[in-house]
Amino acid sequence: MSPTSTDNASLNRDHSYGPPFDNARADLVVRASDDTFFLISRLSLEMASSVLRERLAIMDQNHDGSHTTDADGRRRVLSLPYASTIVAHLLSTILPVTLELPDDFEQTASLLAAAEELGMEYTAATIRHLPTLKQLIQSDPITAYFVASRHGLSTEMQRAAEHSLGRRLKLKDLVSSGDLFFNLHTFHRTWSQRSRALADALTKKYEKECLLLHEHTDDKASSVRCSFNRSGWRDTLYSSLTLVLDTPTAINRTRLCLDLTEFMRPTLFASISSPDYKIIDVGKLDEIMLDVETSAAQALASIKLVKVTDPYASIEEDIVPPDLKEKARDKHDLPDADVVLRSRDGVLFRTYKCILAMTSAFFKDMFSLPVSSEADKTPQIVQMAESAKTLECLLSSILPIKTNIPDDFHSYALVLAAAQKFDMEYALDTLRVGATARVEATSAHVRYGIASRLHLRPEALAAADELLTSPMTIEYFGTEICYLSETSLQQLLTYRIACQQFVWDALSKEDTLMKVLWEALGSPREIGCKVKTPYTDHFVPGWSSSLLTVEAGGDGAELERRLSPWSRSFFEGAIASHTQRTKPPCTFCMSINTSALYRAVCRSLHNMATASIAFPAWN
Question: Where does the pLDDT of residue 275 fall: very low under 50, low under 70, confident under 90, or very high at 90 and above?
């Protein structure tokens, strides 16, 4: 918004950005969103930005004296909706001054987005060709991918996706909607398939190439000395190529050469006591590495980010102009109706105010408002944002007719959301009771995503609890992660971590674990390897003490299994290891169904956690 004449008084030296944007002979003032102003040449800005050139032309045509910094109207004031830091960076790319660029990708992305918005093609091209931008993306490509998506920078999204290859994707890194995360996962998966095929092709191409410097003749003695005749040579070559192709944008030539040599040492130099690296044909290795780099670049250039359709588009309902051919829905066309609900798709529902007011606090307040005597003679028409399908199901839950509950969760959730929106408690109870038998089974991921978007807390919480029984990884979620928004996934992650911490804390209390084990074992009377603990009044198996520690794992390993301190293999292994060492063998431990016991223990810990940990509140 352009400043008014009142603002002109504030354009003093205290608000100036200062050098190098303080030329007293400048003919244009650029004002940033924080009221910092820059004195620059108008011609430079007009040449750099087609958008601003048009704005300035319009200001010239509509000049009323309010766009100046002083009373004589010597300079125009052009206001931009960007902070002074962004404006300074933009101007430094088009003026003969020291080029200033941000030192973090978030600011650089904002700068690029502003340049594209203002039509500053030269500025955008300049920023993209600077090595600084590439370094910022390379330092944290996964975060850069999400930042670029937030600013609508498709070029930077593609570059970040390419540089993220070789890094494992974790749901805790998600800082955007699930569909964007899945797009990146799909990109990784596509490259994994492509790189394996490329490694196989290159292996076939070079598996008969000798990498040793010796005279190659047709006699057997010469061929025996060749590298490809050594045992395991083909597997070694394939492994080395696969390794370097994992990161196609950062293929390390030295690493490929040295790793190849190191892997090949037992086979290439089996008959040499002191391997001499001079006998390696460095020229041949260089030829192979150049081919690897070129082939990888070509293969990577052929892979583009594939946009997955947002599944929420099928469940969100916007108000649209009603159909001109309005018609009433059967069973909702009452001749003595005193109110008409018109769906967003133009279908009429003639019903009674008293029923709506009795079952909905929303409609009760609406109908309590005074109306004119003339309007009171005809049924009141209320435009609704819901579709005819949703309204029909909603009204059937409060009228003395057969309740109509959708059989798919998408439609069912929309009816619930409408009932919640209109404060229809009776309708909510009726719908939820009937849903058990009528709504088809839907995955917990889908139910959680939809319920979170529509703020259906009971449904979201039930789905979240169900998701605790499975790994929280992109591989397990698959395409259904597209239903999760950034907020809903972060809340699920927060809930999962809190429950996991509760389970870990339970292990620090030996009596808690022992009681859980005792109940899961069915309170046995005879245990051959029994141990009495000071925390319980009963005996427990001798292997129970080995479960008092959390299974070790890498960063985020706890998300790769169900809500549990241990994986099933760790749990079953602890029992098996103890049973094998026990002499004489404990018949009780040998009879345990370890898989069933693992599930029972995890279920008990799960129930304890969900009973103690509250799901995060929605804003």
Answer: very low
Each residue of 493-507: pLDDT tens digit?
A: 899 989 988 988 887
* Chain segment 63-109, per-residue pLDDT in tens: 655 555 544 457 888 999 999 999 999 999 998 888 878 888 999 99
For residue 614, pLDDT over 50 is answered with: yes
At 434, list the tokens. Answer: 């009937």
CA neighbor of 455 nearest in space, from 617, 222, 563, 230: 617
Band (533; pLDDT cuts 50, 70, 90):
low
Per-residue tokens: 237: 């070559």
C-alpha count within 13 angstroms, C-beta hemisphere, residue 300: 22
Take residue 179 and report the two structure tokens written for it: 């569909």
The tokens describing 342, both together, are 């018109």
In the block, tokens 């889908």 appear at 446
Which helix (H) or strand (E) is 539 found in, with range? strand 539-541
Amino acid identity, position 431: L
The backbone torsions φ and ψ at residue 125, rounded to the nearest 5 degrees and listed phi first, read -65, -40
CA dist., res. 612 & res. 565, Å (int): 17
CA 315, distance to chain mean position in Å, is: 20
As given in the structure block, the two tokens for residue 378 are: 């005809």
Q: What is the layout of strands, in order, in the sheet containing 327-333?
A: 327-333, 347-351, 339-342, 380-383
Instruction: Write the burial class of residue 129 (CB in 10 Å: 0-12 exposed, 13-18 middle, 19+ buried).
Output: exposed
Q: Which residues contact 430 (CB under 8 A, 6 or more apart)?
A: 397, 398, 403
* Cα–Cα distance measured from residue 301 to residue 305, given in angstroms and rounded to the nearest whole number: 11
State whether the Cα torsion 512-514-520-523 is positive or negative: negative
Name the pLDDT band for 592 (thresholds 50, 70, 90): confident
* Location of structure tokens 């929303």: 362
405/349 Cα distance (integer angstroms): 17
**Ordered structural domains, the chain, with CATH:** 7-163 (3.30.710.10), 188-301 (no CATH), 313-441 (3.30.710.10), 486-612 (no CATH)
- Residue 183 has, within 13 A of its CA and on its CB side, a CA count of 22
Q: Mean pLDDT in the chain?
A: 81
Contact predicate 66/48, CB 8 Å: no
Pick the residue with more confidence: 585 or 201? 201
- Cβ atoms of 340 and 349 within 8 Å: the answer is yes
